[in-house]
Amino acid sequence: MEMLETFAAHYNYFITIFLMISGLFIVIARGNLIKKLVGLSLFQTSVYLLYLTPAKILGGTAPIYDESYKLYSNPLPHVLMLTAIVVGVATLSLGLALVVRIKEAYGTVEEDEIFAKDPEAE
Amino acid sequence: MIGTPSAEAFVMAVLLTLLAAVTIAIARQRNMFGVVILASIYSFLMASLMIVLDAVDVAMTEASVGAGISTVILLTTLYLTGSMEYPQRRSVAIPLFVSIVVGAALVWGTIGLPAFGISDAPIHQHVAPTYIDFSRKHDMPPNIVTAVLADFRGFDTLGETTVVFTAGIGVLLLLQGGWRIGGSRRDEETEGDDEI
Question: Where would I find the H helices in B83-187?
Answer without folding.
Answer: 93-111, 127-137, 144-146, 154-176
